[in-house]
Amino acid sequence: MFEAVDGVATITLNRPSRLNAITWPMMERMVQLTHDVGRNPDLRVLVFKGNGRAFSSGDDIVEGMGVRTQGGDPEGITNDRGLHYELVKLLLELPKPTVAAIHGRCHGAAWVISLACDFRVGHADALVGDIRAARAIFAGQSAPLLLPRLIGQARAMDLLMTGRVIDAPEAERIGYFARLWSADDYEQQLASFIQQLASGPTRTYAAWKLAVNRSVLLELDGYTDYEWHLAQLVRETQDAAEGRASFRERRPPTYRGS
Questions:
Q1: SS3 for 95?
Q2: How far is it, in rounded angstroms, from Cα 114 to Cα 92?
Q3: pTM as predicted
Q4: What is the pLDDT along the chain (258 residues), one digit of tens a residue?
Q5: Can you give the pLDDT at residue 248?
Q6: Which of 50, 63, 101, 156 makes an SS bond possible with 147, Cβ 3.0 to 4.6 Å?
Q7: Are the C-beta atoms of 33 and 11 separated by less than 8 Å?
Q8: Could you tell me which of 98, 122, 100 has the C-alpha nearest to residue 186?
Q9: CB hemisphere CA count around 224 (13 angstroms)
Q10: How does strand 45-50 pair with strand 166-167?
Q11: Contact by Cβ (8 Å): 176, 185
Q12: Which of 100, 21, 14, 99 is nearest to 56 (CA)?
């Protein structure tokens, strides 16, 4: 869902029955909407939300991502590095503040989207983390590039390698959340924060944002190609096959390191 009111653009992930699990059509839509927000001078803030019980559980690896209808081969290293890359780069370059407003669960690809936003703000019930390593999935989608800059290399390694989920207070303590609000005043505080950004000096915000993100943007293309090569190697392992099978069969995986 998309809404634009008083200078604030809001993209709401809207598959509540699937914890807003992300499909290719949803990725295509988010990329297009982010492009549109960047070109519209009347829109001064972009906010991501989730409908229902969660922000998003990440890419839909249970029912499938559906069919990609735009761009080239999503698995190839060409000028098309994939929609996840495109959305991350757009968010890093967008000359306007971006906010991931997170309640409930935020994992996988949704976690990546949040990392690419300028601000992550949280409801007290939020549970966040990459989680994919527990199923032998390596699909970094820029998380290994962005997360260490945000919370430090040691903490990033812990979350990415173990796949553990952390609660809202820990996420705020380590620097993932810029703001954390209780259930009682979450909506009010979120609205006030967004309005503050929407009424601020947008071009000054853009300068700060582009200056802070410059080193990441200079590295992003080469990093993405390298990450793709690693992902291909991991997909061919026996552990990766076991991870996928155990997820489908709803059982603990048995890994042999091969």
A1: coil
A2: 11
A3: 0.93
A4: 999 999 999 999 999 999 999 999 999 999 999 999 999 999 999 999 999 999 999 999 888 788 887 655 545 444 568 999 999 999 999 999 999 999 999 999 999 999 999 999 999 999 999 999 999 999 879 999 999 999 999 999 999 999 999 999 999 999 999 999 999 999 999 999 999 999 999 999 999 999 999 999 999 999 999 999 999 999 999 999 999 899 888 899 999 999
A5: 84
A6: 156
A7: yes
A8: 122
A9: 24
A10: unpaired
A11: no
A12: 21
Can you give the pLDDT at residue 73?
A: 53
Label the pairing between strands 119-123 and 179-181. Answer: parallel
The residues, any chain, with a CB within 8 Å of residue 129's CB and separated by 6 or more, are 107, 111, 159, 163, 164, 165, 166
Token pair belonging to 233: 């190697």
CB-based contact 13:57 (threshold 8 Å): no
CB contact at 8 A, 118 and 178: no
Pairing of strands 166-167, 179-181: unpaired
**Angle of CA points 217, 103, 147, to nearest 5°:** 25
Cα separation, 64 vs 41, whole angstroms:
36
Burial class (CB in 10 A: 0-12, 13-18, 19+), 216: middle
Q: Which residue has the tokens 């390698």?
A: 161
Residue 63 near residue 214, CB atoms below 8 Å: no
Residues in the chain, overall count: 258
166 φ, ψ (degrees, to nearest 5): -120, 155
Cα separation, 133 vs 144, whole angstroms: 12
Whose structure tokens read 């392992």?
237
Output the pLDDT for position 99.
98
In whole angstroms, what is the distance from residue 157 CA to residue 148 CA? 8
Domains of the chain listed by start with CATH number:
2-183 (3.90.226.10)
